[in-house]
Amino acid sequence: MAKNRVTLLFDIKYPIIQAGMIWASGWRLASAVSNSGGLGILGAGSMYPEVLDEHIKKCKKATDKPFGVNVPMLYPDLDQLIQVIVDNEVKIVFTSAGNPKTYTSFLKEKGITVVHVVSSVKFAQKAQDAGVDAIVAEGFEAGGHNGRDETTTMVLIPSVKEKIEIPLIAAGGIASGRAMLAAMVLGADGVQIGSRFVASNEASSHEDFKKAVVDAKEGDTLLTLKELAPVRMLKNEFYQEVQEAYKNNASVEDLKTLLGRARAKRGMFEGDMQNGELEIGQVSGIIHDIQPASKIISDILAEFNVARKEIGNL
């Protein structure tokens, strides 16, 4: 595969970025993806500062390739997380769920490449104006916290491409080489993949959650809790409780009480398949096995190359 704007920006072999998913993206997964030619990402959204410090150090020992850290801007210990990243001389940071102006200038002054995750054209433009080096445009098919506008990846990517000049990374519903090719045909310079890497041997998420992802069928996920922060999750008993709350005209405070604390950790990390929040994308319906990260990447690349040749014959 020829070098392009994304591989050159991150100094990686393939334009495949592993998403920084909470409770799944620890040092084992990030280093495995980086060692396989992609860009591994540590998901700081489920880490205390001292835990992030440990994962960065272990990741550096496990790979000599580039890797990054994803930082949700809503994190209460944000300043401490940023300081851990700077102290450990991490070179790539993906920010999400907040205003990119908050830290972009500071991080770039430290020589750090900054990427921001968006779900709309408006926020892509704002991120570009804030000085980020690249954009991840994530369609509403994606798992976890998502945009309110419900714009699909197939519409979002060309819409954002039309309005920005910096490198564009597509996310949401991408778990195969054919999907990767489709995203790049639409204008993306690379892809960010989350759900497929949840179903990997190296993901730090609970084995029961990985199995639930593999067993998921079409329609088994839904975007909900827009009043708090839109999140796509697998349907289970907790999801049904949320739907009952809506039927009973629950207030925002009622929904916050129902969500409680550590609901995502309870499901994705501790393995409570009924009462936990199980964040995953629509594409889980076509994920059928748990594989090493290296095999996932090699399969994606092989399918990408076959599909590219097929397109050339049309």
What does this structure look like?
- With 314 residues, this protein is of the alpha/beta class.
- It has two domains: 227 residues, TIM Barrel; 77 residues, no CATH class.
- The chain has 14 helices and eleven strands.
- The strands form two sheets. It has an eight-stranded parallel sheet. A three-stranded antiparallel sheet has the order 7-11-10, with no helix packed on it.
- Strand 8, helix 8 and strand 9 form a beta-alpha-beta unit.
- The longest helix has 20 residues.
- The protein is globular, with a radius of gyration of 18 Å.
Provide key terms for this protein.
TIM Barrel, 42% helix, three-stranded antiparallel beta sheet, single chain
Can you give me a brief rundown of this structure?
Helix content is 42%, strand content 15%. The protein has 314 residues and is an alpha/beta fold. It folds into two domains: 5-204 and 286-312, Alpha-Beta Barrel (TIM Barrel); 207-283, no CATH class.
